[in-house]
Amino acid sequence: MPNELIWILFALINFGMLLLFYRLFGRTGLFVWIGIATIIANVQVLKTIELFGLTATLGNIIYGTAYLATDILNEKYGKKDARQAVWLGFSTLIAMTIMMQVALQFEPGASDFAQGPLQSIFGMIPRIALGSLAAYIVSQYFDVWIYDKLRKMFPSDSYLWLRNNGSTLISQLLDTAVFCTIAFLGIYSPSVWLEIFITTYIIKFIVALIDTPFMYAAKYMKVK
């Protein structure tokens, strides 16, 4: 199955699972999802794939669901809850980074087979995490701020798409610039780095458009 088809199905599964968490657990489900998405995205981003003929990193879809989750919180519960969710994701990533770095310090047993793969994945996490933490806190705070501004400027439900897409598209550009600079500059050649930067934002742009119907579904979903 081609990567492009898997990617589309993967996007639908991710956003569908987010709505399922929200439907089953309400506002708490969104907070939990943001913690999950933050950790998984920072593991998946280590994998590069060929998508639409370009080199891209994985993890952009589930990372995009975190923006949708904060937009839902902002829309239905207010800016305070959205900001609290941002800090939850931030704290979750810090906790994961610390715990895995300590775990790697244990001397593996003679029959251990996991130390090498874990070292390969989580050994890069500190730099990835630093880039992600900086990008996440800057862009998510900006996303919450601009969404709240757009909600006040365009309060009608007919402009829900504008609030959702406008805030996400701008904040994702900021996120991509900060993350790619800290995480990948110097690791890849300048041409590959620029390609990753461009394709990462294009993919995030597409993900932001895909999440629009899910935002409308969440807006009118009856939850406790």
Automatic annotation (TrEMBL):
Q: Which InterPro entries match?
A: YhhQ
- Transport keyword on record: yes
Chief location bin: membrane
Regions that span the bilayer: 6-25, 30-46, 52-73, 85-104, 124-147, 168-190, 196-218
**Do the record's keywords include ATP-binding?**
no
Keyword terms of this UniProt record:
Cell membrane, Membrane, Transmembrane, Transmembrane helix, Transport
What kind of membrane protein is this, topologically? Answer: Multi-pass membrane protein
Which cell locations does it reside in? Cell membrane
Q: What is the purpose of this protein?
A: Involved in the import of queuosine (Q) precursors, required for Q precursor salvage.
NCBIfam families linked to this entry: queuosine precursor transporter (TIGR00697)
The record's similarity note reads: Belongs to the vitamin uptake transporter (VUT/ECF) (TC 2.A.88) family. Q precursor transporter subfamily.
UniProt name for this protein: Probable queuosine precursor transporter
Species annotation: Virgibacillus kekensis
